[in-house]
Amino acid sequence: MTREEMLGELKQFVVRELLDGRDTGLDEHTPLLAWGVLDSLSVNVLVSFTSERFGIDVPQSEVTPENLKDLDAYVAMLMRQT
Which among 6, 22, 4 is positioned nearest to 55, based on CA atoms? Predict the structure, then answer.
């Protein structure tokens, strides 16, 4: 799977599951933490989706504000795990 495909699937997931279908202009640089898109519960939902969909287990040590600041940073971290 390419980086762009992964970004697209994660964006769709976030819009559908975390934003209740409201696409508020979310892109790979939208600040997920600063805008309140992610909180402790939704981070767990995102990490679980990542494991199920992409087969990438995110180590707890990688669940950091830096890696969750936006989808671009999250995908970059995921790519390092493969």
Answer: 6
